[in-house]
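Aim 2 progress update. The chain analyzed this quarter is reproduced below.
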Amino acid sequence: MGKTSLDLWSVLLRESLQNSWDARQSSHIEFHVADTLLSEEQTGVLIHDLFCELPPHGASRQIPQKASSGRLRVLTISDYGTTGLGGPVRANIEPAEGERADFADFVRNFGRDDGKGLRGGTYGYGKGVLYQASSVGVCLVYSQAVVGQTIENRLIGVSGGDGGYVHEGFKFTGRNWWGAISSDGIVDPVTGDTARLIAQSVGMPVPNSDQTGTSIMVLAPQHFQGEGGDVLLSDRILAIRAAAVKWAWPHAVDTGDGPNVRFVFGLDGVELPNIDPLKEPLVRHFAQAYVDSERFAATQKTPITSQTKLETIMSQRPIRRLGILAMRQAINHFSDDRSLENSVALMRAPRIIVKYMDVTAPADDYSVYSVFLADEGVDEDFASSEPVTHDDWIVKDAITRGSFNFVRIALSRIEGTFKRMHGSSGPATVAQQAAGATRIATALGGLIGGISGHGANSQPEKVPGGGGPAKAGGRRASAKLAAPPRLMIMDGSPHVGFPYAVTGGKVGESFELSVRGHVVTLTGAIEVDAPLGEDGPQFVGWQVDDEIVRTQSIKVNVPSEHDYLAIFAQPKNTAVSSTVALELVKE
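Predicted structure tokens:
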């Protein structure tokens, strides 16, 4: 079945979802995974009625022993809004013109031929991992599919986890089926109302009678293998949900008409929290970059945002668009999982992440989360480079068109983009120097204030086009940042304060001190415009001693021993800087 660095439950999620997505009837499906302890009655039907006859050798013989206290635990994967497993029930029957052989491919055949094309489930790994996930190597498969002009119900048990053996002088493959024995001795699926009733009697979720879809029950699933510590019953389903968050979040993003896939995960009848990629600590920045790139694809207008930058990845000879790279700058929440920072989520048309590729990190304290989506016109090139588990793009395996390898070119362009941006950074700017202190303030804000803080940066003195420092009789007056920015809580919301001090000038002179807020871009520069879909830094007022003056500028008499705190409401997901201008007030 091939080697992979992925854990069992990640492979199970990825491959099962891909099979369901390939069988979609429209752009939206439901995908459910339930970890359930069957009742004694349901377990009895499975053991004594459905699997009462077992082969002389193999793991499937252990089915009765897996029922603890008369109850069997199962893992059920169901999809809705899909075509179900239609076509002939046997592999040696040619499908009718325009008919797919889904049932035979899934139930009878192991592996798939090249004629299937390069979709996500090309190699049939998805069904193989289902049997691997069962400690007895057995799955019960129920499907409703259109056969002819009507929906046909089909139920069959399949053993795919046993090796071959010899019994009474005959060689057996270890593959077994449980169902209805036909007149020629072949086991076919139980069909019609009987199939539906049996499936319901053992606790399988089934589509409505007028709908199509598939439900696969993995008997006695493998125990979750944790890395040290206690292993809880909930760990297995939590691992599968976590795999969906990490690898399938693009399907859960709502880009306007709802997510492509509605995920439902449950443990013994209790549903786990819904997946919202824009709120998931591991992937929320990737998801926002993806949303920005999808908006660009829909409007062909570059989003006006300081945090997400889009770049078209091109091949120059021949000139060919290979995909879109969306790069998003972020200062993380204290609660964020930063294990994937400074990487690119690589994907193509199936919208399941192939892998996270590490790239050159910024020299400052920001993180970059990026997404590359291969263009549909070269999807076949990228698909050809994937191993059976679809978890890498292997350059040497990709289609070579003459002397051109589009996968090699795209990956090289992506790496080069980040090296140009981050590989040879000059001396840190004032804004970058403040970032480290701001990250600490952000973390403390999360701990002390009970919020998830956002970073801020500071730049002193003049803003382009402003009056700059005042001069009077050769003695300069200036406004300088007196201390690192402060994360503050006002009215229950995060704010950031920039403490400025005014020094110099002639005794008795008056100055007007004004401030502007900016957002910090991917490269450390400042912009006035707020990120797309977000609020900009809104000025609240100046705090002088304990009084807040709610004006953009204030009058300062020198010499001054006060600190003037410029307070801004801290926008979501945005790094903030401020600049000040000091103008002499002429009497």
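The longest strand covers residues 319-330. The CA atoms of residues 377 and 468 lie 53 Å apart. These observations will guide the mutagenesis experiments scheduled for the next reporting period.
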